[in-house]
Amino acid sequence: MNDTHILVVEDEHICIAFIERTLAAKGLAFTTANSCAEALRHLENQHIEFDAILLDRGLPDQDGLVFLRQLKATPAWQGIPVIVETASA
Q: Which tops the pLDDT comparison, 46 or 76?
């Protein structure tokens, strides 16, 4: 079993379903968040250490790039690799 844990920050249900199936097929653990606020709560949870973050650019409560800048400005999280994705044209 793989010990990698990914935080998926995405608000579109169809995208979430695709990402979850893909990660599960690779044996990766994941936690989903539908907003930046929810993602922040997961990051602050001391019981989960994330190995990477898959971050949607267009989230309902904040632009993903603004959230990314906040992550990288926080010493505890600046070492977590982040992949930014979007379904926008």
A: 76
- The residue-averaged pLDDT of 48-68 equals 95
* Helix (H) or strand (E) run with residue 30 in it: strand 29-33
Task: Tell me the backbone φ, ψ of residue 47, rounded to 5 degrees.
Answer: -90, -10
Burial class (CB in 10 A: 0-12, 13-18, 19+), 38: middle
Q: pLDDT-derived band of residue 4, with 50, 70 and 90 as boundaries?
A: very high
What are the Cα distances from residue 63, in Å, to 27, 37, 45, 55, 79?
A: 30, 12, 22, 10, 20
User: Is residue 70 predicted with pLDDT exceeding 80?
Assistant: yes
Q: Which amino acid is at 54?
A: L
How do 52-56 and 82-85 pair as beta strands? parallel
